[in-house]
């Protein structure tokens, strides 16, 4: 399998919301941005020399509207199937995220009032339904695997390439939605912070070199590992005081990895 190149596709701002292009033998797209972003994404694919019709797969990291909002549109524009985890089927089938959002801090509390985060996207049914275990991307032209990484949402997934690049969705972010590049931080929301941290640490144990995130620029794995150790202490103290709010069930009748 040829080397896989990870190319950021900014959807909002310079790095505030990112999709990603994985370039191997064939191209794969990870995430689809906010509603109405399909054309912007395909135009950026073309600027990198990729014919949108050559895309072999669209992988969705989770069921938040800034990541799945243009999935149906992007599928029409590329003809590529959508891969997504079964535990987030509710948002995909309804076009609406599970609410309320559960903020991780002051920024999340402020952003939860943003009407755009409560908008309705075009609904869709995934073509490749992910469940337990990893999914090999070799047949789609990329050396790597999709890993379930529940916590941010029940159906969150990440892509780890054979070259050590982790496309991490919202497992981790840059501070202030990417305004402080290179500094690890929680994204504005997590359904279950401890479960998300466990998923992050499990992926770090696999030895990635860099983490490509939904909000911000790539993060150094060693720096994220140090952050995760400190975050574990912080969350453990909060849990002991009963100050961690979590969502442990899905709303679509499917078993939740968080429950």
Describe this structure in words.
This protein is of the alpha/beta class. The protein has a single domain (5-240), classed as Metallo-beta-lactamase, Chain A (4-Layer Sandwich), CATH 3.60.15. Helix content is 27%, strand content 23%. It has helices at residues 38-47, 65-68, 71-78, 89-94, 106-111, 175-178, 193-204, 221-240, and strands spanning 5-12, 17-23, 27-30, 57-59, 82-85, 128-130, 135-136, 144-148, 157-161, 165-169, 173-174, 180-185, 210-213, 219-220. The strands form 3 sheets. The chain has a 6-stranded mixed β-sheet with strand order 1-2-3-4-5-6, covered by helices on one side. It has a 6-stranded mixed β-sheet with strand order 7-8-9-10-13-14. Strand 13 and strand 14 (219-220) form a beta hairpin. The chain is globular. The termini are far apart. Mean pLDDT is 93; it is low at 249-257.
Short characterization:
This is MBL fold metallo-hydrolase. With 259 residues, the protein is α/β, with parallel strands linked by helices. The chain has 8 helices and 14 strands.
């Amino acid at each position: 399998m040829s080397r896989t190149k990870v190319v950021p596709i900014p959807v909002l701002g310079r790095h505030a919301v990112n999709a990603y292009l994985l370039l191997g033998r064939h191209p794969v797209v990870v995430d689809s941005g906010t509603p109405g972003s399909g054309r912007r994404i395909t135009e950026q694919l073309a600027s990198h020399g990729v014919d949108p019709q050559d895309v072999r797969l669209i992988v969705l990291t989770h069921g938040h509207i800034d990541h799945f909002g243009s999935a149906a549109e992007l599928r029409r524009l590329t003809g590529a199937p959508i891969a997504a985890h079964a535990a987030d089927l509710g948002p995909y089938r309804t076009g609406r995220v599970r609410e309320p959002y559960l903020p991780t801090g002051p920024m999340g509390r402020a952003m939860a009032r943003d009407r755009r985060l409560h908008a309705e996207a075009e609904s869709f049914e995934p073509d490749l339904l992910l469940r337990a275990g990893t999914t090999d991307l070799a047949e789609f032209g990329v050396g790597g695997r999709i890993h379930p990484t529940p916590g941010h949402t029940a159906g969150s997934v990440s892509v780890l390439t054979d070259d050590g690049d982790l496309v991490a969705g919202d497992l981790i972010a840059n501070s202030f939605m990417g305004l402080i590049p290179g500094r690890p931080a929680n994204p504005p929301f997590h359904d279950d912070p401890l479960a998300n941290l466990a998923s992050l640490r499990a992926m770090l144990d696999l030895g990635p070199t860099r983490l490509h995130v939904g909000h911000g620029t790539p993060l150094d794995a060693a720096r994220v590992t140090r952050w995760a150790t400190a975050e574990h202490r912080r969350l453990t103290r909060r849990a002991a005081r009963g100050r961690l709010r979590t969502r442990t069930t899905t709303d679509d009748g499917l078993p939740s990895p968080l429950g």
